[in-house]
Amino acid sequence: MAGPAQDKDNPEQTEEGGGPARRRGRRPAGADTRAALLAAAREVFAEQGYAGATVRAIAGRAGVDAAMVNHWFGGKQGLFSAVMEMPKALDLAELVSGIVYNGDREPARLAERIVRTFVTLWDANEGQFAALIRSVSSQDITARVFRDFLTKEVLHRVADQVGADQSDLRASLCASQMVGVGMARYVVKLGPLADASVDTIVRAVAPTLTRYLTEDILG
Amino acid sequence: MAGPAQDKDNPEQTEEGGGPARRRGRRPAGADTRAALLAAAREVFAEQGYAGATVRAIAGRAGVDAAMVNHWFGGKQGLFSAVMEMPKALDLAELVSGIVYNGDREPARLAERIVRTFVTLWDANEGQFAALIRSVSSQDITARVFRDFLTKEVLHRVADQVGADQSDLRASLCASQMVGVGMARYVVKLGPLADASVDTIVRAVAPTLTRYLTEDILG
DNA sequence: TTTATTTTTCAATGAACGTTGAAAACGTTT
DNA sequence: AAACGTTTTCAACGTTCATTGAAAAATAAA
Q: How many CB atoms are closer than 10 A to CB B86?
């Protein structure tokens, strides 16, 4: 990453557009440095992976000195652990609640709601899905944390809605198809799926989820 | 990555188990340093990502000096580009030929052959699928190269087998479900799919591919 | 054989990395 | 108001990184 001809290091410290140079010492009350570091770290780790993310870049985005990482989290690894124990879970969890606890438990419409909600959400936040995949595939412990979260907060709720047997397997199959669509549309950017409208994807994929939720899957 | 207490740097140079210390200068004929670097780089980039992979680690695994990366590829980026332009395509391409050019074009059996072949292959080579995903999601140009390869060498061949309309979309949907199964089984390691037998996965997933290949997908 | 060219390792370079200790600024307690 | 503890930046440290130039060894050409 080093070398003679390299033009990185754009300042981009915080939102203050060229205010007075920050003096040394404790800042005025109200600044939650710890939270700012957590938020910045979540972004940078997702964008760059663990090795690619530098402490200086994270601190820079949070608008504080790199030494604060050591002071608050004991080092880069500690910050990473802290990020992983709070993986921005609320948004997704609330989203799933909105899909599932709806009064309408008819499987075909439940499936359609799942597909449409997630594709619409991922379409709106360009790059969010790819960042999630990068994060999950970059380190083993990330995958473990994500799996625990997904199982507890999402799959079990979907499985509870369908009265069928093998509900865990059924919910996992649904998740696998949704992740596959995301990989094809946002990461690999396969033409036919990347260019398709939300409606097209719903028409194509929702029946697959319906089948996973209702039909006999084993012998 | 630096720090006071750190115990890395296990030699692990090449396969020669402690032979005479290699002398300086050109080595005897027959040693294809360029190819050795390419092979080592493919492994290390897949395992560590672009930022995590060091030139020293790659050269060490190839059994040569780190300076050879500059001599043969102009630097780390050049080596990465060279790796990506030859993404170990032959294995997968030949595999697909075996699945597709089989005489048996009946969609349901074609779908079953696809699912069984890929899951069996990925099961046999533990970590191969995860390494592929890490590689594809780590950098944009990797995703582009992989997409071009997948479209040309795999999807078009599958699409040619089914005489239906929208064959590109159909093949892409099949690929999305297979990638999703791989993510769930090998990367996130979702229990129900990670623990399931190959037969179970075939019974659950193959009908999905059959539907993508045959049924009316657009209203 | 002598000369030239290519291939390889070695040693060194400057940059960037994570980390640390001390000093400075702020809030809190006495 | 004075003392104390906490928070923050700064400056520096040692390490590791990618890269480079020169020397050494092998092959190729003369």
A: 11
Closest residue, by C-alpha, to the C1' of D10: A24
Q: What are the start-end ranges of the H helices in B15-155?
A: 33-52, 55-62, 67-73, 76-84, 89-100, 107-124, 128-138, 140-150
Q: How confident is the model at residue A91 (pLDDT cuts 50, 70, 90)?
A: low
How far apart are the CA of B20 and the nearest CA of chain A, in angstroms? 33
- C-alpha distance from residue B101 to each of A9, B150, B163 (Å): 53, 17, 15
**Distances B3 to A68, A73, A75, A77, A190 between C-alpha atoms, Å:** 16, 16, 10, 12, 43
Cα separation, B120 vs B65, whole angstroms: 38
Backbone φ and ψ for B125, nearest 5 degrees, come out as: -105, 80
pLDDT of B200 > 60? The answer is yes
pTM: 0.79
In this complex, the answer to whether residue A20 has its CB under 7 A from any atom of chain C, a nucleic strand, is no
pLDDT on residue A86: 58
Does B152 reach chain A within 8 Å, measured CB to CB? no
